[in-house]
Design goal:
- It is a single chain.
- By secondary structure, the chain is of the alpha/beta class.
- It has 2 domains: 9-245, Type I PLP-dependent aspartate aminotransferase-like (Major domain) (Aspartate Aminotransferase, domain 2); 246-364, Aspartate Aminotransferase, domain 1, CATH 3.90.1150.10.
- Helix content is 39%, strand content 13%.
- The strands form 2 sheets. A 7-stranded mixed β-sheet has the order 1-7-6-5-4-2-3. It has a 3-stranded antiparallel β-sheet with strand order 8-9-10.
- Helix 6 packs parallel to helix 7 (141-151) and helix 10 (247-265) packs parallel to helix 13 (351-364).
- It starts with 8 loop residues before the first helix and ends with a helix.
- The chain binds pyridoxal-5'-phosphate.
């Protein structure tokens, strides 16, 4: 039997009546961009995040770019620090805004951006910090808030993998004015194409983002500022509105599978769990694995798909040479990229599937 890395079908099946109803409303109205489905979803998502406003945009990458543009951080003399261990899209969002990308190392146990290292690498030109809630686990937002205050820098959270997460039980927006989300299909809350949002408590930021995402217009045909074209479309909102009420249940299901993997792989030689807190929403289940590539080949031959998030840190990706860093400069992120592997995980994944995966992993290490 084949085991995919992710299976979206059970979530689609479980919500079919709701998304069909929204699609029906959309086709009756025939208004496909910036319509009722988006404004409805924005209200519902803001409320789910315990925040005042959500602004739907085209992608998570654009959410980061637009947050920087809204904060007027767009110049090559303005530096933005993020984690070396993240999706390349975090870096792309930063460079697309026109500012300079700087990278810092991760904590070797959690693989989250290390606030102290980010602070040490910051300087007079540091205009923003972008911690990434990698694999669904929130960064230490108290530490980042402290570093950002000292530097007079803006704190922009990359929560593209952390829908539903809170930090110390408080909403993410209580720590910074910009929280960025992606609705790429495999995310904890995903649509059936590309989508994203910025969540904030500030009405002024909302107003600016609504203009920037829509070509700099204010509803008419005149561009007031140089914006971009990045709107969350109505069709995607039909699915997002159907999936959102299930987010907490799906996150709880991910947590159950992650705990099961933890228990099954606890004593497995060759496997070290990446440390997570109870506040992780378990977007991915990631372990460090000895002979990682061999393990992946072995599992693949048995029909078990795995992923690597990510095979190279940003400073070693050709697109980000401008970071000025070389191999050896961010040792924790570099080592992690050689060792990490993401095991299959999705809501409604049968327990037997996780057990089969864990058995095969143990078999590989001779256990
Ligand atoms: C951590 C992180 N940041 C940013 C992004 C960008 O999101 P999107 O693919 O919606 O542009 C992603 C998703 O790929 C991500 O995982």
């Amino acid at each position: 039997m084949q085991i995919p890395a992710v299976n979206l079908k059970p979530c689609l099946d479980a919500t079919e009546p709701a998304w069909r109803q929204h699609l029906g409303e959309l086709f009756a109205r025939m208004h496909f961009i910036l319509g009722d489905q988006l404004s409805g979803f924005e209200k519902e998502y803001a409320s789910a995040c315990s925040a005042r406003h959500a602004i739907g945009v085209g992608t998570g990458t654009a959410a980061i770019e637009l947050s920087l543009r809204a904060a007027r951080i767009t110049g090559p003399n303005q530096e933005v620090i993020t984690s070396a261990l993240t999706a390349p899209f975090t870096g792309i969002g930063i460079v697309s805004a026109g500012c300079r990308l700087r990278l810092a190392d991760v904590d070797p146990e959690t693989l989250l951006l290390d606030a102290a290292d980010a602070g040490n690498r910051a300087g007079k030109r540091t205009a923003a910090l972008v911690p990434v809630h990698l694999y669904g686990q929130p960064c230490d937002l108290n530490a980042f808030r402290g570093v950002a205050r000292t530097l007079h820098a803006v704190l922009i959270q990359d929560a593209c993998q952390a829908h539903g997460a809170r930090f110390h039980r408080r909403p993410l927006t209580s720590y910074s004015p910009f929280v960025c989300y992606s609705f790429y299909p495999t995310k904890n809350l995903g649509c059936l194409g590309d989508g994203g949002a910025v969540v904030t408590n500030q009405a002024g930021i909302r107003k600016r983002l609504m203009m920037l995402r829509d070509g700099g217009r204010r509803g008419g045909q005149v561009a007031m500022v140089r914006g971009i074209n990045s709107r969350l479309d109505e069709m995607q909102c039909c699915y997002l509105r159907a999936f959102l009420p299930k987010l907490a249940e799906w996150n709880a299901d991910r947590a159950r599978t992650a705990s099961l993997y933890d228990a099954l792989l606890k004593d497995c030689d060759g496997i070290t769990r990446v440390r997570t807190s109870a506040e992780s929403v378990n977007h991915l289940y990631v372990v460090r694995a000895a002979r990682r590539n061999r393990l992946r080949e072995y599992l693949s031959k048995l029909g078990i798909a795995t992923g690597v998030h990510y095979p190279a840190p940003l400073h070693l990706m050709p697109a980000f040479r401008e970071s000025g860093l070389r191999r050896g400069d961010l040792p924790h992120a570099e080592k992690a990229c050689r060792e990490i592997v993401s095991l299959p995980l999705w809501p409604y994944m049968p327990q037997q599937t996780a057990m089969r995966v864990a058995e095969r992993v143990k078999e590989f290490y001779g256990g």
